[in-house]
Structures are given as C-alpha cells and as structure tokens.
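Raw record, unedited: Glucose-methanol-choline oxidoreductase N-terminal domain-containing protein
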Amino acid sequence: MDLSSELEYYDYIICGGGTSGCVVAGRLAENPNVKILLVEAGQHNKDLENVHMVGGWSNNFDSETDWNIITPPMKGVDNRQVKLSRGKFLGGCSGCNGTLCIRGSKQDFDDWGLEGWSGEEFFGYMRKAETFHPKPWFDANEQAHGYNGPLHTEPHDLAPISQLIMASFISEGLPHVPDMFSTGETPHGCGHAPRSVYNGLRTTSADFVTNGYTRKNITVVTGSTVDHVLVEPDTRTGELVARGVLVQGTLNGDVRAYHAKREVVICGGAYCSPAILLRSGIGPRAELQKHDIPCVVDSPGVGQNLMDHPIVFIFYETAHPNLTTDHLVYHDNAFETTYNLWKTNKSGFLSTFPFGAFAYARLDDRLANEPLATKSK
C-alpha cells in the first residue's frame, strides 16, 4: 500500500505520549536537526486539574482520562475481572501515579549486561532528568540527585503517625537510611521516597515536551490513536522496515498516515504497546489469525508473559486525634477548606500524595526462623 502522497514526514514518530513517550520525544528533540511527531490517544494535560493537583489522582480513573481496560474473567483469580486503570492523557500514568521516585538498584541494570545501559550510566541519565529541591529536615544524598532537569522532585513531609511508624522501624533494628531509594545501592532499611511534586504541583513526563521544554522540532498530536504501524519491505535489502503509522482521531474517527524517515518508536505501555504490534501484524501467528489480521512477523512473545506487582492495603483505626491527616479531608466540611487552600496557595493535603514512611527489608533475614520459611525449604 503506497500512501506516500498522503503522508506527513518526520524523522521519528513516537507512538504514545505517556510516561516514556514524552521522555523519548524530549530527549530526541535535543538534536535540533531532527523532526519528531508525538502521538497521544488522550487529551492534552494542561487543563486537567486532577493531574496537576496531586490529591485528585483517583478522579482520573473510570473517566475519559482512563483507558478503562477490564480483563475478561480469569481462572487464576477465581474468574474475577480485573480493572487495569491507566492514564489516557499527555503524560500518561506519570500524571495519576503515587509520585514516588524509586530508581531501583544499579545492580539490576548491570545484570542486563547491555553496553551503554549499566547501572552507573543509567543513573547518570536519571540525574540529568531531575531537578531536586531539598528541604532542611531531609538528609539527602546530594550526589545522587540532579539539579537541572524537567522532573522536579522534593521530599515529602510526614504525618505524625508516619513519624511514629518510622521510629518503630528503627526500634526493630532496621537501619535509618533517609535517601535510600535514590542512591542505587541495594536498599535495606527505612527512610523516605522523594516525590515528583514541587510547589504543590505534580511533575509529569509531559514536562519533557511542554512548559520550559517546548521545542519547535516536536509536533504533539493529542486525541489520536495509533491504529497500526505501516511495515513494508526495504526496496534494497528486502528486510521489513517500519515506514510510518496509521492514526485514527479519537473523537472524529478521521484516519491519517504519517511517515518516519528514521524510526517508529512504540511507547504505549505494558498494555497498549503489544496491542499496537498485534494490530500491525506482529505477534503470534495463531493469535493474529483469530482476529483475521495478516501475519507480517510471527513473534510468539508479543502480548504474552505480562507480570504486575500486587499491592495490599491494611487498614487501622486510631483513637488519638490528629495523628493522621484524615481530618483535613473527611471530617465535616474539611474538604472544601482543603480544596480552596490548594486552589489559592497550591498547598495543603491536596498538594501531596499520602504515602508516608518506607521500609525495605530482606525477608530471608527477618523470617528465617518463621514457619513460612522453615516449612518451605
């Protein structure tokens, strides 16, 4: 299919303007000699208050700003259906997550064994992306942070109950390492996680391509879903190459084609990236045949082996007043007062995400003599 007469030309086309797509586009655009197209299915985030107001995060779900993905009944979870909320707007899940800046261990990246992707190199780019704003009470590892990037971060002031929980961690023998999630060392202890928040506003990956980082060589197209990648044989080598993408307007349904001179980069996240590939005819042949999609590349791994991390909430009640920050939101007319505080000053409860103290401990050490450990050997 020759669509060359209908195509707009770019050097790079980024499919998905979420957590990774905006970063990729912003970094590529540092080269002023390339032209970049960033395609996002959702809307621009500039007018989305529940993105910028950290405390409004949950209001982004079950709405037009959520992909609203629901699984079919699954045998492994007693035939339940699981809701898979994902941000559908410029910035993606970075605009509705818990704001925690946890980098992982350098050793994890070293284990990949890939040239240019060692832990030390990777953390250098993390510092490049960050502008860290210290607070007097927080004992930051200054060398671990960056101070001139689009991602603004700061420590999170703890509620009184979190101070008590931190003290209890320490009393149980966990080392106090305040900035343990920033250094890249294998964490063991208790401390804090810096947040992607500054001056009462959430920082998202959209900040890599907007605000002070808007560049003339990036075109951002929102409200447009990448239907599939245009894959054709190279006229010289015969090898299959990505020539462009076919995009459908989310609201009007208009179909448009764009051409990539260099590369098409798929950044649709764990759920939507495989879907784009499958619609492009790249995936397990048998699965594609079920949906009458011609198989362009038989790649059995596409759309398989999804892994996610569980999260478990445990709820407690306290008889002591004002240990938590609940009274700032849930009591009487407190929410209206708290909301007005954020609207006028960008401060208060809604300017933060209510995660508190953190602990990271080796379970093999702490549970070595417990029945769960001894009986499993």
